[in-house]
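Entry:
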Amino acid sequence: MTGNAAAFLFAASIALQAADLKVEIQTHFDEACQTKKFMGAAALTVDGKTIVSLACGWADAEWQVKNTTATRFSIASITKEFTAAAVLLLYEEKKISLTDPIGKYVPNLPDSWQSATIHQLLTHTSGVPIYTATSDGKQENPDLKRVNLLAVPDDLLNLVRDRPLMYEHGSEFRYNNSGYILLGMLIERVSGLPYSRFLQERIFDRLGMHDSGYDDGLKIVPRKAKGYALSGKELQSPVFFDPRLAWSAGAVYSTVQDLARWSEAIAHGKLLNPDSMRRALQVYPEAVSQDNYHVPAHYGYGVVLTKRFGHALQYHGGGFPGFNSVLQRYPEFNMDVAVLSNLDSDSDVLPSWILGDGLAKIWLEAQPKK
């Protein structure tokens, strides 16, 4: 056999393996959809190239409009990745220091909040009371229903201004939406721009994320999925949740392709410099918890750092009524998995992160052992 023939057969074998792998991933996704416990979209990319991009279920069940890979979804707390990146852009411009107290920039905060540093807000170690939860942290704050949406973000923090700190600044980790609201207020005060405009001009437009934006709860967003809950196998409309209630902690919408583009861009220095990325992905001992598998996980700046299937994983998930989402990155393989669903995570659904894990596992197990 000539060298050219051998090379051709080797290339053909690789192509066949890749095709088989795509079929396996497609099958896994289809099986999830067939259970009726998942609907939404997913994308798996490697080295910035799409391996699979898939969708199923209804973007609008009433009008029987199907989800596609171009459907826009509320991404909920994945928004925190963008808020953290916006803060780091201001840090790179030397407009702030990450050790600065938030009270230096945001006025009229309770005395006990003012000395919380920007770093502590980014890592959920500030101890500031959580506006989305009751004081014992066990239930959603019922007073959210009475927020004046025209007074967001101030009225969000007004819900907890009279509560004491949960713990001393920097002493422990507790996932905290209030901290990321304060960071959104910081972005506005320092940049002089509305939070939504800062994200649009400084991040989305710059990276070509044309299907991403801030959902103000009022404007019509073309191709955006409606959110649903699941009762048995029947779709239901969930309790309405205005995205403004999440503001800089969770009001962004996007697509699976835009999120893959974001993850690839942020990992390869297309937005933040090496110093910012080092800080974002650093393990901070005080910001430790457990991931969904009870494996130790650390929170960097807008990203969870853990291990999955024996490999380093950087991810963030999200969820509020009608939607749940995850964005995962395996840096060792330059692989990104984005899964967005318009089903309520509090109902009997297959969560986006479980489906994302399944897709990632198929691809990882097919890779040559290092």
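The chain is about 35% helix and 20% strand.
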